[in-house]
C-alpha cells in the first residue's frame, strides 16, 4: 500500500510540468526569418491587424488570412495563407509558446522556397525601417 501511495504522489508530482501555450490573437512579434536560399532577415507578424483573422506581415507587403490549429480549436497554433489574387502565394504554420513569449514557425511559397522563423512578442516593431525597399510586393524577401 505504501508503494502505491508513493507512486501516486510521484506521478501527480510530475503532472504540472508542461509547456505553456497561448494564443497569438491580437499580438505582435518581431521574428528572424531564414530562407532555403540563404537569406536571413527580420520581420513583424501582426495578428488580427487590421481585422480579426488577418495576419499582416510587414515585409511580405500583404495581409493574409490566419486561423488556429485543429479546426480553429488549438489556440496556440496558427496556419495562414495568402488570398486569391495576391501577388505571392505563401503559406505559414507556427505556434506561440507563452512562457517564453516566443513565436516559431515555417513557411513555403509558390516556388517551393521554404522559410523558418522565430521571434519574441513585442510592443512595437518596424522591420522595414532602414531596409532597401520600395514597399512594393516585388521587393519582398520571401521571393528569391
CATH class: Mainly Beta
Low-confidence stretches: 4-22
CATH architecture: Beta Barrel
Mean pLDDT: 83
| E-strand count | 8
Global structural class: mainly beta
**Approximately what portion of the residues adopt beta-strand conformation?**
35-45%
CATH superfamily: Quinohemoprotein amine dehydrogenase alpha subunit, domain 2
Q: What characteristic shape results from the CA principal axes?
A: globular
Any idea what the radius of gyration is?
Answer: 19 Å
Give the count of helical stretches: 2
Termini distance? 66 Å
Largest sheet: 8 strands, antiparallel, barrel
Helix content: 10-25%
**Secondary-structure element sequence?**
HEEEEHEEEE
Q: How many structural domains can be distinguished in the coordinates?
A: 1
What is the spatial order of strands in the main beta sheet?
1-2-3-4-5-6-7-8
What is the fold-level CATH name, i.e. the topology? Answer: Lipocalin
Could you explain the architecture of this structure?
- The chain has 144 residues and is mainly beta.
- The chain has a single domain, classed as Quinohemoprotein amine dehydrogenase alpha subunit, domain 2 (Lipocalin).
- 12% of the residues lie in helices and 41% in strands.
- The chain has helices spanning 2-14, 69-72; strands at residues 28-35, 40-47, 54-57, 62-68, 74-81, 90-97, 102-109, 114-121.
- Strand 6 (90-97) and strand 7 (102-109) form a beta hairpin.
- Residues 4-22 have low confidence and may be disordered.
Amino acid at each position: 500500500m505504501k508503494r502505491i501511495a508513493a507512486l501516486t504522489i510521484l506521478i501527480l508530482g510530475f503532472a504540472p510540468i508542461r509547456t505553456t501555450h497561448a494564443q497569438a490573437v491580437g499580438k505582435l512579434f518581431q521574428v528572424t526569418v531564414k530562407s532555403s536560399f540563404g537569406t536571413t532577415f527580420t520581420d513583424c507578424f501582426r495578428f488580427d491587424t487590421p481585422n480579426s483573422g488577418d495576419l499582416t506581415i510587414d515585409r511580405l507587403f500583404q495581409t493574409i488570412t490566419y486561423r488556429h490549429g485543429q479546426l480553429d480549436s488549438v489556440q496556440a497554433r496558427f496556419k495562414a495563407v495568402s488570398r486569391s489574387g495576391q501577388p505571392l502565394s505563401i503559406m505559414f504554420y507556427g505556434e506561440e509558446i507563452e512562457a517564453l513569449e516566443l513565436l516559431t514557425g515555417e513557411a513555403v511559397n509558390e516556388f517551393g522556397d521554404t522559410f523558418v522563423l522565430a521571434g519574441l512578442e513585442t510592443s512595437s516593431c518596424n522591420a522595414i525601417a532602414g531596409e532597401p525597399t520600395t514597399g512594393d510586393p516585388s521587393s519582398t524577401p520571401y521571393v528569391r
